[in-house]
Design brief:
The structure holds 2 protein chains of 2 kinds. By secondary structure, chain A is mostly helical. Chain A has helices at 6-27, 60-96, 98-113, 116-127, 131-158, 161-168, 173-209, 221-228, 237-264. The longest helix of chain A is centred in the first third of the chain and has 37 residues, at 60-96. Chain A is elongated, with a radius of gyration of 22 Å. Chain B has helices at 42-50, 75-84, 93-96, 103-114, 119-132, 151-163, 181-198, 209-215, 233-238, 243-252, 319-326, 350-356, 376-381, 392-405, 422-434, 452-469, 480-486, 504-509, 514-522, 526-537; strands at 2-13, 16-27, 31-35, 58-65, 68-69, 86-89, 169-173, 201-205, 218-223, 226-232, 268-279, 293-304, 309-312, 334-339, 342-343, 359-362, 440-444, 472-477, 489-494, 497-503. Classes of the chains: A mainly alpha, B alpha/beta.
Chain lengths: 273, 538
Amino acid sequence: MRARHSSLWLGGALASFALSAAVLSLFWAPYNPEMQNIAGQLQAPSLTHWFGTDHLGRDTLSMTLAGARNSITVALVAVMIGMGVGVPLGLFAAAQRGWVDSLLMRINDLLFAFPALILAILITAIFGPGAINAIIAIGVFNIPVFARLTRGAALSIWAHDYILAARLSGKTALRISWEHILPNLAGLLIVQGSIQFAMGIIAEAGLSYLGLGAQPPASSWGRMLFDAQTMTGFAPWLAIFPGLAILLSVLGFNLLGDGLRDVLDPRQKGHRE
Amino acid sequence: MSLLVVDNLRVRLRGVPVLHGVSLKISKGQIYGLAGASGAGKSITAMSIMGLLPPKAQVDGTIHLGRNDLLKKSEKQMCALRGKQIGMVFQEPMSALNPLHPIGKQVAETVRIHENVSRKEAKVRAHHVLTRVGLPPSQISPGRFAHELSGGQRQRVMIAMAMVLKPKLLIADEPSTALDVTAQAQILRLLKSLVRKDGVSLLLITHDLAVMAQMADELAIMRAGKIIESGPTPKLLRHLDHEYSKTLLQSAIMRPLRLPHKVHGTEAVLEAKNITCRYGRKYRTNGHNPPGVVAVDGVSFKIRKGENVGLVGESGCGKSTLLRALLALKAPESGQVLLHGEPFLPNSHKQTKTQRKHIQMVFQDPYSSFNPRHKIARLIAEPFYLQGKISAERRNAAVADMLEKVGLAVDDGNKYPHQFSGGQRQRIAIARALITKPSVVALDEAVSALDVTMRAQILALLGELTDALGVSFLFVSHDLGVVRAICDRVLVMKDGKIVEEGEVGDLFSRPLHPYTQALIAATPDVETALEERELERD
């Protein structure tokens, strides 16, 4: 059993590790991540500074922990925006069909046509850099993902006889969507949510690497990578640790999504129970 | 001399025994029928002969085809035997045919896989066999694809693919169950004439004893992985020993379950006035409006209180479209539906919600009729939404009452749909349809997905309920036997029109329209089949 769900277990472990790092940073960090100490700059990893220090003498471990909090908050809120807007839109399009459906889906196509990161850069370029605008930007490109997924799955559920039975019970499309369609989509949305979460972490790192995300002195993984790039020759730990943090948390949430899909998708269970 | 000898065949799947020592002998040119309810082990027996059991199945016993011991063959050797020596026809031709290849090519491919012949010769053989199964290339192009054929034609292609290699044994697993009555009669006749002409042995598997009475020379009845009795068909059916076989036969003989009774008054509960429905009509700006397809063409009829009406016709005749209009799910193009004398219009009208409790529906597929996430009690109570606010106590009492009426336990309300069999689910669907005390319930092929014994039980239940509750059933079906068992009056529909209408007794004894006569003649019936065969012999 465990061997079959190995990606779920590995993904779950990595994801919860990232989450607990973010939660831990709220209460405790070895040092204040914003505290500069020029005298102790560019120290290699040691027992006092596990991940070393940067060119301003800040503790890299503390910054990585604070960066986890930043990344996860941005990704989480962005997924919530994507779901909160995309899912109702998808349900509405599936319930209405006809021209409403076509219009919504063509707008969706338009959003999809822009590469996600370019869209996010556009939004932050217009509204100015900052963590809040990064959240909105990433959230907006999540909307079409959820809208399209929801619509497709909802359409197939609308074809079932029990929906016809609900219509014969006089229930409106809104009520049917809420009572019958949405609960049957829950598994699918959780899976997609965790995959979009991973995408959100990458997008946030990308934006803050370009200076469009969280602004200093707030820590973020992308910003740390940007600062580290001129010093990788003599202080590789500055790039390695935030890089590893991004890699492992993205890998974790992706594996978690895949694992959940295997567990939740009845078609993969082999037999219908 | 026997062609196929199965001796003491035992099969275990995942450690669970499913066949307990099945033995049978099929001689050359014989039609051997294997009957039984679903789950009796009929298909497992066929799969064992074909060597198509799941890899982990444990098989004991022997299967001899001529001098070949099939259970000792390797997979590679079986591949050579399958098709060449043993052909197979499945129930669902749509999923057995490749949708991407033309039918002629698929038949020719079969030849080329097994025999070293040129493309050209394979094509000639394919065309020859397609002609034999009634799809002559001059009329039905071998360049057609599976989706361009009717169900009966698809099954003919399957038979062509099985027969093109001239196998010694043909296995047909429910070859006609998914088809309309007329197509079923044609397919059965075709199978019989082909095997007789070529001297092929046929192992015919079906749950329908009426089909067996027509077809099988030798008949075996299976139950729970065993053959409980067997013998020459007419003799066996006249003198069945086992109680179980007798119930199976009773279920196959569709006797009227209730005497035609007096209909309460003459008041029409549901009336269709000149209904016309059309599909695919598009209004284009260039003024060339394609007329679309008329699915329902000026249909009018009345259903009176407590009267059961059957609506009979083949698939594609417009039954389902008419039903959607009657249930106010789709507005007809013209005409009117009157429910208790008042116009009944699709959902957007305020009045519709108060009217809906008078008309409910039971669906064909018991697996898609319920939201898998809801418990039975909640599913049955769903139409209560129409009654406005009702206290939980009253609702629970009504659900419990309904569960008992349809023959389930009150505790079943706390279970989920997947815990029930197809027949039980149809009972649940009936409970849901009846909970608002409607005056009309439409049943769309409500028993055609069930096997014979289950079907007989559900029909008996419906018969009881209609008398007890004074509800009218509109029974939509392609199966005349079912309609005869439960209805007072029958409407026969063809190409969107009602071609004949009459009391059930009159219609069956003196059908006027040629189409009705053809339908009745095509319906398999145990008694007439046996009489015909006894005449043939004399």
